[in-house]
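Lay summary

Proteins are chains of building blocks that fold into shapes. Our project writes down both the chain and a compact code for its shape. Here are two examples, one after the other.
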Amino acid sequence: MGITLDQAEVAIKAAKAKALEINTLMNIAVVDAGANLVAFVRMDGAWLGSADISQKKARTARFFDMPTGELGKLSQPGGPLFNIEHANGGLITFPGGLPIKNSAGEIIGAVGVSGSSVENDHTVAQAGVDAIS
């Protein structure tokens, strides 16, 4: 079973609350197990360019079932996945995308966040994951 709209909305609400708590504006996307967009929010004033990045982070995390920051480590020059960011119509290989698992440990979707530093993006994405995992 993939992520439901209700779960995606819970993740977005928690991520948005974390963004407000750390005083940043974010784009937050949630995709299902098939990497299809389920829910998206662009906070008032968040960077327009980050809307696409947040969705690509979510899809990247689901395509490879790992945090985008981990994929980034593997895609550095000389790494086993060097240049992977050019696959699948463009991947994002820096932090801010995280898989979402259900209580049985199965991946049901992913969240992607963009709009601040990669550290803040990751923190906000983690809040979304934690709200439903």
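And here is the second example, written the same way.
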Amino acid sequence: MGQSMRSIHDNLQAVRGRIAHAATAAGRDPLSVTLLAVSKTHPAALVEQALAAGQRSFGENYVQEAIEKMDALAGRSIEWHLVGPLQSNKTRLVAARFDWVHAVESEKVARRLSEQRPAGAAPLNVLIQVNVSGETSKSGAAPGEVAGLAAAISSLPNLKLRGLMAIPEPGAARARFRDVKDLFEKLKAEFNLDTVSMGMSDDLDAAIAEGSTMVRIGTAIFGAREKIRPAA
């Protein structure tokens, strides 16, 4: 069952409190961390409730599901982020409808997004997904490939490279978060980066301690997933 409006509000307040506590403990300004509410598999009605509680940035994994919500909430002030893997056959829809893409891992996909961004639209904000764990089952560019990919993306006219994203394997997240932040710092000045997207409901505190500027929170806001959907 979905969360009630009251509990969505309370959950957002609790997550914001966790973010503020973690940032303060790390000697950081809580305002330096953006809360991205991951609404994948949850209905537009729950996004509406989060909007009423002051949340404006939402993350989705599945393109078609996201577009249905965008249409249902047309006219609302929402910043839409694609946080799941991006198939090359979905780039046209993503380039047309999203504000951010978190999981760019190849120059091919980046080039398609730039070419397919509608004329007159603001540049699409993109993050390079880093496979910091080296797991063959995980998406993302190897750390050694990131600088070259960053240079390629930065040359594309309709994209704005904002930084890095990572999903470390459980059990070693703290060290992997540190690795991502170290890589970000090496590239930050050259590419004018400002965003490190890492940390979810279970590990946002460690991610913020290691320098995350954007945490992707689903379960702690919306509860368990409504249903499992196929990747799309």
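What can we say about the second shape? The two ends are 24 Å apart (CA to CA).
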